[in-house]
Design brief:
single chain; alpha/beta; Peroxisomal Thiolase, Chain A, domain 1; 13 strands; 32% helix; 24% strand; globular; binds acetyl coenzyme *A
């Protein structure tokens, strides 16, 4: 058994900003409603010619450089995404070629907004068992590509982005270093609370009443989000033997500022230690956590040795958490 430690991080968002003022021109909404109900002021969105792998590539390159490695050092590539460039091949496989990695294994993980946390847990297993020394883990999504910009209840939330970690093996096992505990869960009965009805094998064309893009029951998902993220953090604390007072930072999935605040409240955990980047980036699915993590490391907020809890939920319903010493 070895430790799985984060040796480098990187992130990237597209240049183009979609502000609340822009959305006011597209649907019946206003800046005040969006800010009060979601905490979002703007999001980044890709140009038509940009895709998920373009964002993932830059984030991954930066993470590898940050780790002091080259693409040749990477032993496996795992990408969390629900918006791959193509049905197949995977974004991970495209990264193998674009980054110039050896002929290593690569695959995507679809766990909606828990994509990165899930991909990181897959990588954790490979690294801890000693099978691989450096695993590239990316969370990247372009939700703008599957958002219905005539639906004001969803289009105000979503954006695009990418974040990446290099997860590396230590030479010997040290108690409570790197990833300490992780878990994922699912409950498929909530499918229709948040899903993309068209474009898959059940409805290959845009021929259902729900219309194109993401379909969501916002109020239902809001409650499930608060319950599931709070529950999984409590579970991870209990399983790892840590008290919440020992945790330096919680990074929740960035879906709505009110959800973030409700989770902090439910856990009775200080809001100033809960990282939020939602104001400038909205919800970019698998990218929210690695993006927030990387920005916080680069700004000096998260430091080496800090105990960081990640927690996420997403369509399915799926949810999970991960505690690490950075
Ligand atoms: N602008 C103005 N008014 C709006 C807008 C808008 N953009 N959207 C909805 N409204 C209206 C509604 O029509 C409703 O009007 P009514 O009272 O006349 O019927 C009113 O505002 C209140 O609507 P609610 O849906 O109750 O508003 P709520 O406070 O719940 O906020 C929101 C809606 C922001 C969608 C919230 O429910 C939410 O964030 N839910 C969770 C979303 C989420 O986390 N999604 C997960 C994504 S994770 C993944 O896997 C992609």
């Amino acid at each position: 058994m070895y430790n799985a430690i984060v040796s480098g991080t990187g992130s990237y968002v597209p240049e183009k900003r979609l502000t609340n003022a822009d959305l006011e021109k597209m649907v019946e909404t206003n800046d005040e409603w969006i800010v009060t109900r979601t905490g979002i002021s703007e999001r980044r969105v890709t140009e038509e010619s940009e895709s998920t792998s373009d964002l993932a590539y830059v984030a991954a390159k930066l993470a590898i450089e940050d780790a002091g490695l080259t693409a040749e050092d990477i032993d496996l590539i795992v990408v969390g995404t629900v918006t791959p460039d193509y049905q197949f091949p995977s974004v991970a496989c495209q990264l193998q070629e674009r980054l110039g990695c050896r002929e290593v294994g690569s695959f995507d993980v679809n766990a909606t907004c828990v994509g990165f946390v899930t991909a990181l847990q897959v990588a954790e297993m490979y690294v801890k068992l000693g099978k691989h020394k450096h695993v590239l883990v990316v969370g990247a999504d372009t939700l703008s590509k599957i958002t219905d910009y005539t639906d004001r209840s969803t289009c105000i939330l979503f954006g695009d982005g990418a974040g990446a970690f290099v997860l590396s093996r230590t030479d010997q096992f040290i108690e409570n270093e790197g990833i300490i505990y992780s878990s994922i869960h699912s409950k498929g009965e909530h499918l229709e609370g948040l899903y993309v009805p068209n474009g898959g094998s059940r409805n290959p064309k845009n021929n259902t009443a729900e219309g194109p893009g993401i379909v969501m029951d916002g109020r239902k998902i809001f409650k499930l989000a608060v319950q599931s993220m709070s529950k999984t953090v409590t579970e991870t604390l209990e399983a790892s033997g840590y008290q919440k007072e020992q945790i330096d930072w919680i990074i929740p999935h960035q879906a709505n500022q009110r959800i973030i605040e409700a989770v902090a409240n439910q856990l009775n955990y200080p809001l100033e230690k809960v990282i939020s980047t939602i104001k400038y980036y909205g919800n970019n699915s698998s990218a929210t956590i690695p993006l927030a993590f990387d920005l916080s490391v680069k700004s000096g907020k998260i430091k080496r040795g800090d105990l960081v809890m990640q927690t996420a939920f997403g369509g399915g319903l799926v949810w999970g958490s991960l505690l690490m010493k950075y």
